[in-house]
Write a structure and sequence with these properties.
Structural class: mainly alpha
Keywords: Membrane, Transmembrane, Transmembrane helix
Radius of gyration: 27 Å
Pfam families: Bestrophin-like (PF14023)
Organism: Rhizobium sophoriradicis
Helix content: over 70%
Number of domains: 1
Largest sheet: none
Distance between the termini: 46 Å
Number of helices: 9
Number of strands: 0
Protein name: DUF4239 domain-containing protein
Length: 254
């Protein structure tokens, strides 16, 4: 489900919960909403409100951490690509084919996107990314170093290419984690209860309804941010591929 759609559904859910509270308020006997009853309702909702605030804060912090880690991974991967290209360039013209394969790998990554679904699967005649990096590693292993310097450069190139392959598989595995949907569903239910009690306690007037709608929109916006940032390579808020764009401009240079 798209993060924007989920945020919209949460807004509708909270608005409906508020409307239900307002409708119930109009049908309850007066003694059900006297001062003593409202005090108990406020105490009960304060507990739920505190739990909701803590849960929402934890989810936002977790999503922000996921986004920041993905941003670091993007920059690290771009730096390793450049390092691998420079090591192969220092080895000599024997690595020209491997360098071209590396450039094609990055071009494919930019065209297909930076996510587990697009990089791990073949698309038409295009191989999966792990097969591309394995082809680069195969060319590197096939080299025949003439001296200790080339032997050292070959070992370094294989080490860096192994790091790139590791980055790919980490992306594939972490892409299957996703959001704690059960946790998120419970949180939305808690928030729905809170908004229903808001409508239950206050009289219906334009000012009150406007404030409640703005609050519902704010909470829905927070849910949107959580779900969108938890998938940092896709969505409206996504990690920029500028490091890779910058890297590809430097690839293949002597």
């Amino acid at each position: 489900m798209g993060s924007l759609l989920l945020g919209g559904l949460v807004f509708v859910f909270l608005s409906t919960a508020t409307a239900i509270g307002l409708i119930v308020r109009g049908r309850l006997p007066d003694h059900h909403l006297n001062a003593e009853s409202k005090d108990v309702i406020r105490l009960a909702t304060a507990v739920v409100g505190t739990l909701s605030a803590l849960a929402l804060g934890l989810l936002i912090a977790s999503a922000k951490s996921t986004y920041d880690n993905a941003e670091v991974e993007m920059r690290t991967a771009a730096a390793r690509v450049l390092l691998l290209d420079r090591v192969m360039a220092q080895y000599g013209p024997e690595t020209d084919k491997a360098r071209q394969l590396l450039r094609e790998l990055i071009e494919k990554r930019l065209s297909r996107g930076w996510s587990a679904e697009t990089t791990d699967e073949a698309s038409g005649k295009a191989l999966g990314e792990y097969q591309d990096i394995e082809a680069v590693q195969g060319d590197l292993r096939a080299l025949s170093p003439r001296d200790a310097v080339q032997l050292s450069l070959q070992a370094r190139a294989l080490e860096v290419s192994g790091m790139l392959a590791e980055t790919h598989w980490l992306l594939v595995e972490s892409g299957k984690e996703g959001l704690p949907w059960a946790f998120l569903a419970v949180l939305v239910c808690w928030l729905g209860l809170l908004f229903a009690t808001f409508g239950l306690q206050a009289p219906a007037n334009p000012t009150l309804l406007s404030i409640l709608l703005v609050c519902a929109l704010s909470v829905a916006g927070a849910i949107f941010l959580i779900t969108d940032m938890a998938n940092p390579y896709v969505g409206l808020i996504h990690v920029s591929d500028a490091p890779l764009q910058s890297a590809i401009e430097r690839l293949g240079k002597p």
